[in-house]
Design goal:
The protein is of the alpha/beta class. The protein has a single domain, classed as Vaccinia Virus protein VP39 (Rossmann fold, 3-Layer(aba) Sandwich). It is built from 9 helices and 9 strands. The chain is globular.
């Protein structure tokens, strides 16, 4: 999604305009920095609510034995761990992320959880997926789309790698209800960076994460982008007063 007021060849990194070529490296630096404390910070900054949001996503996916699932921008593997048990020995889950440090944490956590035999790990660029057309029954991306430079390209790729009848599920922070915005802004820009400073020793990365949420498309805007990518039966549901939204759609 382009901004006509932004200079050509640039995009946003939080509230800062950077060159398109520069953003991926900057985002990579953020997640290199936070990878080792990522799961602890998720629990702290969401008061454990991220687990419920992901549980809802898993329920909506209705994954069955034998399914092939792409957990895109899957990081430390929360969804992969659940999906691997649901697809069974006859299915397969690909944990994919652009960031090697996050994937290393994901591999460790999956091994520690006893997951084996029906998952693989791939370091990929979501804008240029290295998978054949129609490879997956489900594609999920949880809290990752907002970090991708060209979201339209990523959505087009998700559509391409889905099989006919396959479902995409996009879980991410979104635009909350007006009544909670003041408190939400206070938390995001005052409390969250301090948590990052004292827990992860990285205030700047969590300042970026707060800003990236504000730059992410609204619920309705993302819905339109999914329709433009070719998806059908597009819908979203707000969770926690719109702090998070789950968008779902199908390739028919």
């Amino acid at each position: 999604m382009s901004n006509p007021d932004r200079p050509a060849g640039t995009t946003h990194f939080g509230y800062t305009d950077v060159s398109v070529d520069e953003k991926a490296g900057l985002v990579r630096g953020v997640f290199d920095s936070v990878a080792s404390r990522y799961d602890v910070m998720n629990d702290l900054m969401s008061a454990g609510m991220h687990r419920l949001w992901k549980r809802l996503t898993i329920a909506e996916a209705r994954v069955s034995p034998g399914h092939v699932v792409l957990d895109l921008a899957g990081g430390t593997g929360d969804l992969t761990r659940k999906f691997a048990r649901l697809v069974g020995a006859g299915g397969h889950v690909v944990l994919a992320d652009i960031n090697a440090a996050m994937l290393a944490q994901g591999r460790r956590r999956l091994v520690d959880a006893g997951v084996a035999g029906n998952f693989s790990i791939a370091q990929v660029d979501a804008e240029k997926l290295p998978f054949a057309d129609g490879s997956f029954d489900r594609v999920t991306i949880a809290f990752g789309l907002r970090n991708i430079t060209d979201k339209d390209a990523a959505l087009t790729e998700m559509y391409r790698v889905l099989r006919p009848g396959g479902q995409v599920l996009i879980l991410d922070f979104s635009t909350p209800a007006d009544v909670i915005k003041p408190a939400y802004d206070l938390y995001s820009f005052k409390v969250l960076p301090l948590l990052g400073k004292f827990v992860a020793n990285d205030k700047e990365s969590y300042q970026y994460l707060a800003e990236s949420i504000r730059m992410h498309p609204s619920q309705e805007t993302l819905l339109g982008m999914m329709q433009d990518a070719g998806f059908e039966r597009c819908r979203f549901q707000n969770i926690s007063a719109g702090i998070v939204a789950l968008h779902t759609a199908y390739r028919i």
